[in-house]
Amino acid sequence: MVQSSNDLVLITHEGSCHCGKVQWQIEAPAHLETHTCNCSMCDLSHYQHLIIPKHRFQLLEGEENLSEYNFGSGLAKHYFCKSCGVKSFYVPRSNPDGVSVHARCLKRDTILSISDTPFDGQNWEKNAASLAHLSKA
User: What number does CATH give the domain 2-135?
Assistant: First the structure.
């Protein structure tokens, strides 16, 4: 367990793509607060964002198996497994100092609960600032 600066207890969660060639771990609470976005990209994959500071993300395996995709502004860095095609994490435009992991790619044994809030990504410019604080811990 790790104590964050705001006295929130963080634990280690492990995640991966579908085939397991890309594996990572994060430090986050056992009770997760996620956002499901309705933008053109996230809506197709029902991406469930768990945005954390970059220093709480560690790629363990599979860097050579990642493919990067950019669109629109080109600022977001979407990483896909070259083998199974799953995007298990990326660097969002709203949080360039953070990482968004796909909560559905986490192993469930360390998660006590998930509270999900819809995010209106179809109106991204109007709403993106509401996510900025998530990568600041």
Answer: 2.170.150.70
